[in-house]
Every structure is written in C-alpha cells, then in structure tokens.
Q: What sequence folds into this?
C-alpha cells in the first residue's frame, strides 16, 4: 500500500485575531479598573438587598475581622489638599504625647489600607521597612474602656472632618459582642447614623405566599 | 489572499530574495497580554460594595431619664441566637413574671422562616407598600425615584398597626445574623425597629430554648 506522506511542518497559527481580542479586553480592564485596596484582614461581608453604593470619600470604615480584631480607616477627603489623614494622626499624637515627624505624617497620608495599630506602636509602624514588619504590628485597635483608642480616633476624625460618615465592614462570622462594642463606642460618641457595608443580593417575595 | 510569488531570475542569474511578508512571532506578546489580563482581573473590584443605613437610638446617659414607653401589644422581640437561629416572642416581660418566662418561638433565616413571621406581623403595611410599588411599576402613577422613596417613608411613618420590633442579640450570635435580620426588616418593610441590649431574662430564655446550660456560661464569663 502506498503511504500517504504528511507534511512534517507544523501548521502556523495566525495569532493576530487573538492579540486583537486580548488588546480590547486589556484596554477595557485598564480603563474600568478601580484597584482593590489590600486589607490587613480578609473580610467576607454579609449580603443584603440594599442598592445604595458606597460613597467615595468622607468615610471612616471600621473593619471587624472574624477573629475579633478591629481596624480603622478613613480617607483624605474629596480633595487631597484637605489632608485629613495627617491631621487626624497629629491630633491623636497630641492626645497621647507622641510627636510625629513630617515624613511620618506623609507616610501615613499615603498608606491607604486599614490600620489596626495601637497608637503607641504607630511610630514603629510608619517607619517599618517592609510590609511583613507592618503586618506584625497590626494587632487591632484597643477598644476596652481602660484604653479606648477607637473612641479617640472617632472623636478626632469627626473633629477634623465634620462630614465624615461611619461605615462598618464586618466579617459575617465575626462574633456579635465585638460588633456590639464598636456600636457602643459609636453611640457614646453620638454617631447614631451609620452604614453597614454589604454585598448585593436579590430577594424575591411572592405576595400570594403570604396572603394565606 | 493568495499571492503569487514567482521566482524570477535576473539577468545576471542572481536569485532574488523571496517577497514573503516577514512573519512576526506573536507568542511572547500573547503571553504578556495574558499575564496583564489575569493581573487586572484579579485586582479589579468589579462590584462596588453596597451600604445599608442604620440608625441607633440615642444612648441614655442620665440614669433618671426613663426609656421611651412603647405599647406592649405591638411589641415583638427578635433574639438572635447561636447557630443561626432566631427566637421571637411577643410583648414584654414584667418583673413579676421573671420566674414564669414566655415561651420562645424558634425559627431561622430561610425564606419560610423569620420572613414569613415578619410579613405576618406587618401584612397591612407591606400590602400598602407593595400596592404602591406595583402602581408605580405599571405606570399608573408618574413619580420620580426620589419621591417613591419619600412616599414609602411616609407610608411607614403613618403606619400605626405594624409591629415595633426590638432586635436583640445573644452573645453567641454573629455579625452576619445581625445584618441578615436588618435586611429582613427592609425586605418586609417594617416601619419601626430598633437594636437594643439583651436583658438577662432573655439570655436565660435563649439558653433554655437552645439547651445551653447557664452554669457553663456563667463560669466561662
């Protein structure tokens, strides 16, 4: 039987359409992206039907991890010239007798993710060389009645930025007593209206079902 | 497109180079783009998180000031228990009844659980809100989105038949339950609800209902 000789050369695939497609996707992603801030603790937010979007600024966020640590974050305000972050840190420093240098204030201004550092370790935290050393210092903000630093942060954040709104971002598995403590501190500071950060979920109710 | 490439021989017999378009190997470019796409996909926060507004009552700092009175007949208590359970009981417990606590009704967060109970309590108001929404959806009423919210708020504040729900959390409840129950309040259109501290007798009621021995609890405290 005569053998059919197949060409040994591998067929060349034209990659151009693939590259085109990738470019389009890439450009789309680059334009729409809002970078996710790395958080010191992984938090799975609970679901709700609320469709109100999170505001972009004038927020102070309390992050409650599922092991009961509390972290706090606030933004720089709608305009970077307002420099809320360094101002709040300076007030905190005055309160606890810690002098922050200009460089430390700048580092704090640029540090965007949540903080869980007791104020006594703040200097060490800001001067830390690498992120590993920083993560080790993130032990959660003290909030017991003897050393209520969270209350102080709230006080000064509201003094520096009167428009600031409180947001609570808790892990769904976080124990309620910790949440309750944060709520109590907020209530003590006269923050009565605040927001819970949730993920969107749809809910359907059939009216027929309930009319029986 | 087919190209005819003819091998031509020049006059002096030299072979002319072929007129092939130069082939660029795109594979490294594709590799790089893949990497970038994966990177962007992972770092992008696609869905922005949502917020749910909640208002806490003012803390009573003056010990002589009494808590606002609410009618016991409209009061419904919801206690968040351990293991994603929810307990409810109606009315209030008077001090003389501390030894004779009312039974708790146990339910859960499923659609047929606490939601049905809440809708049962709040049927009149829920129907009003739902009718209103339907009218807007069918176009019988032309009204802007903001006014819809305002009108629903008005319906809620005018309501005087619905329950006054007091939400309490047992210490083993988690934050997810808390958000879930507030969410149920929004879903069922409950006009009046508040988050309050759990009383000691309610803790006992939950412990009795969930089968937790209170001795073990008190020793761990």
A:
């Amino acid at each position: 039987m005569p053998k059919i000789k197949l060409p040994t050369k591998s067929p060349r695939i034209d990659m151009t359409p693939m590259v085109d497609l990738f470019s389009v996707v890439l450009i789309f992603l680059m334009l729409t992206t809002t970078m996710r801030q790395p958080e010191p603790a992984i938090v799975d937010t609970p679901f709700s039907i609320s469709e109100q979007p999170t505001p972009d600024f004038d927020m102070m966020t309390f992050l409650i991890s599922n092991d009961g640590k509390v972290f706090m974050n606030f933004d720089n305000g709608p305009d970077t010239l307002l420099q809320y972050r360094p101002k709040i840190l300076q007030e905190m420093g005055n309160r606890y007798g810690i002098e922050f240098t200009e460089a430390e204030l700048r580092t704090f201004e640029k540090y965007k993710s949540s903080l869980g550092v007791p104020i006594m370790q703040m200097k060490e935290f800001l001067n830390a060389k690498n992120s590993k050393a920083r993560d080790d210092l993130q032990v959660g903000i003290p909030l017991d009645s003897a050393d209520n630093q969270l209350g102080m942060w709230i006080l000064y954040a509201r003094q520096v930025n009167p428009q600031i709104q409180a947001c609570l971002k808790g892990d769904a598995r976080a124990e309620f007593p910790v949440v309750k403590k944060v709520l109590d501190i907020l209530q003590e500071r006269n923050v009565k209206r605040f927001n819970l950060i949730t993920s969107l979920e749809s809910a359907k109710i059939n009216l027929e079902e309930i009319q029986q | 497109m087919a190209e005819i490439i003819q091998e031509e021989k020049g006059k002096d017999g030299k072979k002319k180079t072929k007129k092939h378009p130069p082939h660029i190997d795109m594979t490294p470019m594709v590799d790089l783009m893949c990497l970038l796409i994966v990177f962007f996909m992972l770092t992008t926060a696609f869905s922005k998180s949502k917020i749910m507004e909640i208002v806490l009552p003012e803390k009573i700092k003056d010990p002589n000031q009494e808590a606002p009175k609410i009618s016991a007949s409209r009061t419904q208590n919801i206690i968040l228990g351990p293991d994603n359970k929810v307990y409810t009981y109606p009315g209030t417990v008077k001090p003389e009844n501390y030894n004779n606590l009312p039974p708790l009704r146990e339910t859960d967060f499923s659609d047929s659980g606490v939601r049905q109970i809440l809708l049962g309590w709040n049927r009149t108001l829920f129907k009003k809100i739902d009718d209103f929404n339907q009218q807007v959806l069918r176009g019988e009423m032309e009204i802007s989105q903001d006014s819809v919210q305002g009108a629903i708020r008005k319906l809620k504040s005018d309501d005087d038949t619905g329950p006054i729900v007091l939400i309490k959390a047992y210490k083993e409840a988690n934050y997810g339950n808390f958000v879930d129950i507030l969410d149920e309040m929004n879903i069922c259109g409950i006009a009046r609800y508040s988050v309050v501290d759990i009383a000691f007798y309610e803790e006992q009621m939950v412990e009795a209902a969930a089968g937790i021995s209170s001795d073990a609890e008190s020793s761990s405290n």
